[in-house]
Amino acid sequence: MMLVEHLVEPPWPDHDWQTLGERAVAAALAASPQADLAKTSATVEISVRLTSDDAVHTLNRQYRQQDKPTNVLSFPMVQPDLIETLGNTDDGEILLGDIVLAHDVCAREAAARGVALADHATHLIVHGVLHLLGHDHMGDAQAEAMETIEQAAMAALGLHDPYPIED
Prior knowledge:
By secondary structure, this protein is of the alpha/beta class. It has helices at 17-31, 53-64, 103-113, 117-132, 140-156; strands at 2-8, 43-51, 72-76, 93-102. The protein contains five helices and four strands, in the order E-H-E-H-E-E-H-H-H.
């Protein structure tokens, strides 16, 4: 069972962020090679925090030594090489990790892409879940594999392609 906990802080507008996050997490998991995690008897928990650029700036500086806000940060609680074994846990609960989104950065990116803030936030939660599952985009092959999963998850949700081919 998946459990998605939410913390929504200003300046994020009123919206059903809980449902949006649950749908994004489920779609990301279903499109990933780790889809079997959804079938485990354990509770798999992900925390999603929607907050300000200032809060994300502080976290980005503290944990990534980047002195600026960014759109999404992911904080995995499970080592990537242990992800495949999670379905065999006897704990009953798996804390997969935390995802944090910065409002103003997300809003600017959504406007630049011509998509709704909620749709862009959905993509960033999908992206964050994949990081929690051990996926990365450091090299070209990794980036292509991760983008393919993101595109599949977004398509399953009936949303835009986050990586359209530009002429």
